[in-house]
Amino acid sequence: MNIVNRQDKDLFLVRRLNQASIAALLLITALYAGAVTAHGKESLEEDSCVRRIGENMVHFSAYQPQHEPSAQYCSEIPKGGDTYLVVDLVDEALRGMPIGMRVVRGTSETEDETVSYLRPSYHPDGVIKGETSLDQGLYTVIITAEGLPPLRYQYPLRVQMINYANIFRTAVGPLIGLLLLTLLGYKLMKSKRMERWRASRRQ
At a CB cut-off of 8 Å and minimum separation 6, what does 122 contact? Predict the structure, then answer.
């Protein structure tokens, strides 16, 4: 009777180990997908899509409804194609200034190709909207406000490119957990109790 109980317990442990390993793999997959798709809903203080100069703050978003209707992107855009660019002028003072937006291929406004340009104008509703087509590669969004002093905000864009650093930082925790589970499973499979259980199954 005790042998049967030990066998049932060992079988239960093996099943739980397998379930935990599968859960860890699913978590890593989900984190990977999150790292290359839309950024989450964060407070303005924590939002990486916010730029601040003094008391003046803007928020940038990019959308590709033809691919993901509800997804909102910032610096990492997973696919090329038509892209809608939206800048929210968080501070009302910016709404009284002429503000323009330029998108250049690369990282230099003077040396690289301009792919989209909105001339400076007033935006009393606090929203700047633009549309452009982006191919795979690096871009820079440059927002300029003709105030006193003039203001300039920049956003780097990576289109259809994998950011391995972000993926590593996101997945390192689950990977460590998976390694620990693997080590635990290895020790369990090599234990004398498991060897006795396997021997009893062969009889």
Answer: 95, 96, 97, 98, 99
Residue 35: CB atoms within 10 A of its CB come to 19
Token readout for 5 is 């109980």
Q: Which pair of structure tokens corresponds to residue 104?
A: 């250049």
> How far are the Cα atoms of 14, 44, 156, 181, 189 from residue 23, in angstroms, in the given order?
14, 32, 34, 11, 20
Q: Please list, residue by residue across 139-149, b when 16 or more beta carbons sit within 10 angstroms of its beta carbon and e when fewer do.
A: bbbbbbbeeee
Share of the chain above pLDDT 90, in %: 42
Q: What is the pLDDT of residues 178-192, one digit of tens each?
A: 777 777 776 666 676
Q: How does residue 104 score in pLDDT terms, banded at 50, 70 and 90?
A: very high
Q: Is the pLDDT of residue 36 over 80?
A: no
* DSSP-assigned letter for residue 117: E
Q: Which residues pair with 45 in a beta bridge?
A: none
DSSP for 138-190, please give it.
EEEEEEEE-SSS-EEEEEEEEES---HHHHHHHHHHHHHHHHHHHHHHHHHHH
Please tell me whether the overall predicted TM-score, pTM, comes out greater than 0.90 for this model: no
Contact 145, 98 (CB under 8 A): yes
The residue to which tokens 């899509």 are assigned? 49
